[in-house]
Each structure stands twice: as C-alpha cells, then as structure tokens.
Amino acid sequence: MTTLLLHPLLWFNLAVAAPAASSPPSWAGAYSYEEAPVKALAGYSMAMLWTLTLKPQANGLGGELAVEGQQTFMKLKVRATDSAQETQVMFVQGLDGNGYQQLKPGDVLLRLRRDTKGQVLTYWGKLTPRLTEKHRNGQVAFVRK
C-alpha cells in the first residue's frame, strides 16, 4: 500500500521540481554601436555613437534610438518586434535633432539577428552608418550593454 502512495507523490514532486522550458531571450535592453573614427579634411577625427534602448510594452517593444556625432544628432522613438532570432527596429517619430525628416512611421531602420553562436548581427534598413559609404550587412555592430 505504501508503494502505491509513494509513486504518485514522487511523480508530483518531479513535475513540480522540473525546470520550465526557457523562453527565448528578449531583445529588451540597451545596445550601443560606435562607428570607427575617420579623419576629417580639417584634420580632426570624427566619431559616431549609436544607442538603442528597447523596453517591453503592450504590443511588443518600444524605445529610443539616438545617433550622435560631431555634427549629427537625432533621437528617434522606435518600436520593435520581439521574436527569438530577430528584431526589426521601426521608426515611430522623431524626438529631437534632425536627419529623420525623410522617415515615415513604420519604416524599418535596422534589424538585429542572432546567429548560431549568439552574436548579434546588424542588417541596415533606412538608416546606415554615417562615417563610411561602404557598410556591410550581417556584421557585428550593436553590442548589448
């Protein structure tokens, strides 16, 4: 009789103690990308810093994308998808600065994608690096802070 009672208790304990299936990592968080400095004609080095912050919201992710450099400044309100392998960062509205007037709500600014090793690869959309004319998709650019 004790054996019959032990088995249901054992199964209950195993079911409760079993770890839950882990959910895919979210894209929520802070990311940055620093373009390699280039020498300006006047002799100084120009740098460009991109910062992306994504937070959970009712319909996916929302946040801000800022691009700052010697003569560049723009801060954008963005929304993003939150799937396991990829997120699309889309324009919502301009918050400050200039250089975003040509963008329309819903434009895909860039995509971040996790490769098989977990690295975050960047695929450029309506926005591209500012200091180089030759940028490549599928490279590590944005790094999670």
Description:
The structure is a single chain. With about 140 residues, the chain is mainly beta. It has a nine-stranded antiparallel β-sheet, with no helix packed on it. β2 and β3 (about 60-70) form a beta hairpin. It is globular, with a radius of gyration of 22 Å. The model is unreliable at about 10-20 (pLDDT under 50). The chain has one domain (about 20-145). It contains one helix and nine strands. Pfam families: DUF5991. InterPro entries: DUF5991.
Mind sketching the topology for me?
Layout: H1 2-17, E1 29-39, E2 45-57, E3 60-69, E4 73-80, E5 86-97, E6 108-114, E7 120-124, E8 139-140, E9 143-144
Antiparallel strand pairs: 1-2, 1-9, 2-3, 3-4, 4-5, 5-6, 6-7, 7-8
Pfam families: DUF5991 (PF19453)
InterPro entries: DUF5991
